């Protein structure tokens, strides 16, 4: 694995024993982890191709401890990598050999359920599903639902701006967060937002969301909860080609229908999912759409009829509407288990996360299949079709020399293709280390320099999660320098009045 | 004398700002000029007028996306969207009339620069939730971009959020790409009469927590309701609480019935059909209920929705003579106006116990120059905001002092 991380700080490594003692002053007992065997647990996140045990790990329990730890690390020049459940698929929580891993797993309590204001205040280590579980007895839920929702934490969701199958209608994490408590690398504790809807001043809440742990450490999150729809029903639509399925997606949206979810799977993914959990998927089709409609019962019934008609016009060869809640859940079970299901087809798989304009679905898929032949690696495709978010799963065997490397090159080609057709490198998994070196395909030097200047406003010494997101780390002093050319002709062509 | 710079294209915007940065010349950024009276007044020798950067460069209805120049009129965009039965989900207001200006002059650049969203905001998100990407020129005189044209995009920091609502203090936008949504087939409103603030907040909370998908929930005390052009509202002679339902006809009807039935047991309820319903929400969105009298200062309070009545209770207790208000966003937004001084300390003290913030939306220039128009922030947060400002505009030449004195 040829991943260039920030240069090792030998002085920090030499001061390890001293740092352990100082950390134990802050977090007593087992909260400071220093032995090699225990540290190995943290060596990778959901992107297992990259592994690096941290120099040390610390598991604080209070915001005050987090603040003191960050202050200490600032003073000693120690890099810090924050981590929730470690389910990142982009290596966002990959540790550093000379860095402290700051685990927030002990922040696992729901602090308040405010029914009247329809929000929940939670510590960052509460799982995504944990929030819904806490409010579902009153008919509420937290809308963003990444497939890893059993394990992934709300703090990690905020850091990555996670999505899920329902964000077409209900938005991403950023659209469902009201407030945050954040600790800066300096140890300063800030509160952003609250239970009100709009931010005052600059929208730092929006900026923090999706900042991949580079700007601050999240110690509390206030999320919106919404009422469960009166009814939800799903329909399975089978197509003889990916083109027809892609066309159907565009037609549904074009008809003014925003489904609660609209997912697509290609033939390999359908077969893998069906074999894995017997969802009742048709096996004689090339592409499958799961369309879920939710809302008032009469509305759902009506829209299902319209979707069915649109699908038939688009050439659907099979249509199956869920007849019961159990059947609807079965349709989803197959989709939600698609990753592990595909995982059984090969020793390893590599999950991509490109995002494209919907109407490019068929084109990108065709090209992906061509690339699959060129790289001689199989690929199964799972999409959030409604919002153009692709998850090609590249199958490989890490034990075959060169295959991982080939899988990565294949993946990079898919992502470049997504950008080329007007899309994005990552729809919901984050840049992390995985897509870091591809940032240049989407952004030029000036775009990236401005993003890094924002980073400098939060963490001027690049101590927080360095080596992630940005391909090259520039010193803040250099980034801040303004190269002015005084005495230039004053915009000769500019209309003035 | 103000010199007006009116660039025709993004490159000229860059040239102008690069020059201003080199010479440390402050610039006021304007589009249609309809929001110049928002924020603290900016007085500069040079004004950068972005209204020539107008026009729609991309509109793909089936992709729910549009790209435009910042100087494009909001009215033009809304007309174009309506032709394809689409709309802006966050329902931006035309604040012109409320600010003593003609209607229909606002530009889309101003809408995003101020992040002002209408009644659907509590359900559909704010302007900030709809911006997908932009191109801009920073106060350093450098062109840069962020985001893109797809809804799912977490590549790099979300500068769309940061730029939205930054009142032109970080960068001059040269192109905006935003999400559009299908327009609902039908709109219908349930009116509930005679609720006091506390009761109204309770009812609004029930409506928002119901599975009936309300897309507008507002409460108009009698004195405000009187200003409506709709007789059902103006002649009610009572406080009016309004709940909007939108969607396919059959669904709207079923939900309206269910909600009416729910509330009819406790209060007088009436139904308002399509056209009147649309007109009422236009009035709410464009602040028709706010007194137009020039001596009224206008505040915009963003609060936890369930605490709205507590806030107005404290306002009343503070003895502010002639204070009137109405609630939008199921209570989450309070519009408050009264004659005379802005009384920022009293207003903010009324908000403080429940969290939230207050912005002085309308007051004479001299007043806005001398008080905190935006909510003052705690020191650590204010210092961070200052560093963020400097990361885009180190010489502080863009809209200096618009949000905070000295910034």
Distance between the termini of chain A: 59 Å
Strand arrangement, largest sheet of chain A?
15-12-14-13-17-18-16
**Strand neighbour order, sheet with most strands of chain B:** 4-5-9-7-8
Mean pLDDT of chain A: 94
Please give the radius of gyration of chain B in angstroms: 21 Å
Shape of chain A: globular
The SS-based structural class of chain B is alpha+beta
What keywords describe this structure?
heterodimer; A: 497 residues; alpha+beta; 7-stranded antiparallel sheet; 5-stranded antiparallel sheet; 18 helices; 35% helix; B: 407 residues; Uridine Diphospho-n-acetylenolpyruvylglucosamine Reductase, domain 3; Alpha-Beta Plaits; 3 domains; 4-stranded antiparallel sheet; 14 helices; 18 strands
Model description:
With 497 residues, chain A is an alpha+beta fold. Chain A has helices at 10-14, 16-26, 36-40, 63-76, 128-135, 154-160, 167-170, 204-208, 242-254, 267-277, 297-313, 325-336, 338-343, 361-375, 403-420, 439-442, 445-458, 476-480, and strands at 32-33, 56-58, 79-83, 99-103, 110-114, 119-122, 140-141, 177-183, 189-193, 217-224, 226-227, 231-239, 261-266, 287-295, 316-321, 348-351, 379-384, 389-396. Chain A is built from 18 helices and 18 strands. The radius of gyration of chain A is 24 Å and the shape is globular. Chain A starts with 9 loop residues before the first helix and ends in a 17-residue tail after the last helix. Chain B folds into three domains: 49-182, Uridine Diphospho-n-acetylenolpyruvylglucosamine Reductase, domain 3, CATH 3.30.465.10; 186-285, Alpha-Beta Plaits, CATH 3.30.70.2190; 293-379, Alpha-Beta Plaits. Helices cover 31% and strands 24% of the residues of chain B. In chain B, the strands form five sheets. Chain B has a five-stranded antiparallel β-sheet. A four-stranded antiparallel β-sheet of chain B has the order 12-13-11-14, with helices on both faces. Chain B is globular and about 70 Å long. Classes of the chains: A alpha+beta (497), B alpha+beta (407). Chains A and B meet through β9, α8, α9, α11 and α17 of A and β1, α1, β8, α5 and β10 of B.
